């Protein structure tokens, strides 16, 4: 359909019927790896095109964040002609992905059974909020899942209200899990020729993503609670005040704690029976904290960062987003890429033989509609105006 792309997924066609975040993030990762992603949008476009501010050239930066390297076609699934295009696309795609409610595409002939009947070896990925059983009718919004999974009960000051994460963490993690499932299914297809259905949901992702906190309950019988910036099992592993501001100190094992004490000029703390092991430091954190703060108050956060880093103690400043991007640049990570002049964050995966690509900016609405129809052998629709913006 288009000039050959590079990357380990070159030649894989993805019919992307997803919108907002979890699905588009997944398909952008696949596109970065060389897949040819065809983004199917309704006449109004993906909701995030209109989630402003912030905005760049009239498009929400939310949309720009997760839609590079894709082609856009507008299809109204309730229209017979557009439904024919959708069916033809589903018959040609290697991967079909959507995040409609479970069963929501059946009336359009785009459920798993219908698509697999046209395309027996398709990898069909469906993303939902709460699975396809009893939770099928529940709306899948990240904020709801942050609340219902228990994450918000862990976030915030112990004496204050629960807080959401600053990002849609479970949408992003579900997108990652979806990409992993799709890649596993593609490998299985390479070995056997067999396609399959891949299901992910935000609640299952949430419980998996909360790792030690959920394990504390299911394996230890402990229901975790809000601890502010403190860690349930480690100390010091939190922001600590210095002479002019806070510094994250993350001494996660006994060796790091000994190095911390030596760098602070208080080696005797490492030999104190109350603090010699991770467990003892955790039990006696309220006795240890003022002793550390007393030493840290003698220098600035920047000075302690240099001293502790030199001593091999993990630590770091609390940056804003600009500071995080600038730090990545200073460390040689080249965090920003600009396909066709539109800046976005570099894919974090680096492959030595088949590097990620950054060929296409996030597409204008229906920018590739005629191209996709021509590839499918279908005529362009009659229209009185050009592609949407």
From TrEMBL:
Which GO-annotated molecular functions does the record name? CoA-transferase activity
Keywords annotated in UniProt = Transferase
Q: Which Pfam families match?
A: CoA_transf_3
Entry's InterPro entries? CoA-transferase_III_domain (IPR050483), CoA-Trfase_fam_III (IPR003673), CoA-Trfase_III_dom3_sf (IPR044855), CoA-Trfase_III_dom_1_sf (IPR023606)
Q: Which residues form a coiled coil?
A: none
Q: Does Transferase show up as a keyword for this record?
A: yes
- PANTHER family recorded: SUCCINATE--HYDROXYMETHYLGLUTARATE COA-TRANSFERASE
Protein name as annotated: CoA transferase
Lineage, top ranks? Bacteria, Bacillati, Actinomycetota, Actinomycetes, Streptosporangiales
């Amino acid at each position: 359909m288009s000039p050959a792309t590079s990357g380990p997924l070159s030649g894989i066609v993805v019919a992307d019927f997803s919108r907002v975040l979890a699905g588009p993030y997944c398909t952008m990762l696949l596109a970065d790896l060389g897949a040819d992603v065809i983004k199917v949008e309704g006449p109004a476009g993906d909701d995030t095109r209109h989630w402003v501010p912030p905005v760049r050239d009239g498009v929400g930066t939310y949309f720009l964040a997760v839609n590079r390297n894709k082609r856009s076609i507008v299809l109204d699934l309730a229209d017979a002609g557009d439904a024919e295009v959708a069916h033809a696309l589903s018959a040609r795609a290697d991967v079909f992905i959507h995040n409609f409610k479970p069963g929501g595409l059946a009336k359009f002939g785009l459920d798993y059974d219908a698509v697999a009947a046209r395309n027996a070896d398709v990898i069909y990925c469906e993303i939902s909020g709460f699975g396809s059983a009893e939770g099928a009718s529940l709306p899948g919004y990240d904020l709801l899942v942050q609340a219902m999974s228990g994450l918000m009960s862990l976030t915030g000051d112990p004496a204050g209200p629960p807080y959401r994460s600053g990002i849609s963490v479970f949408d992003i993690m579900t997108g990652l899990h979806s990409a992993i499932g799709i890649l596993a299914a593609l490998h299985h297809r390479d070995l056997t020729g067999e396609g399959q259905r891949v299901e992910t949901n935000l609640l299952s992702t949430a419980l998996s993503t909360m790792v030690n906190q959920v394990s504390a309950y299911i394996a230890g019988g402990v229901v975790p609670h809000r601890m502010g910036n403190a860690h349930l099992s480690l100390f010091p592993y939190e922001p600590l005040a210095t002479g002019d501001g806070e510094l994250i100190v993350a001494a996660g094992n006994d060796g790091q704690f000994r190095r911390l004490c030596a760098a602070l000029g208080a080696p005797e703390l490492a030999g104190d029976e109350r603090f010699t092991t991770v467990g003892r430091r955790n039990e006696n954190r309220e006795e240890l904290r003022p002793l550390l703060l007393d030493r840290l108050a003698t220098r600035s956060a920047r000075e302690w960062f240099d001293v502790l880093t030199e001593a091999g103690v993990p630590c770091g400043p609390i940056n804003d987003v600009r500071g995080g991007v600038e730090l990545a640049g200073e460390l040689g990570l080249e965090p920003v890429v600009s396909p066709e002049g539109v800046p976005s964050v570099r894919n974090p995966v680096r492959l030595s033989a088949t590097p990620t690509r950054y060929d296409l900016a996030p597409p204008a609405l229906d920018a590739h509609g005629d191209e996709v129809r021509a590839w499918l052998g279908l005529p362009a629709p009659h229209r009185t105006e050009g592609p949407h913006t």
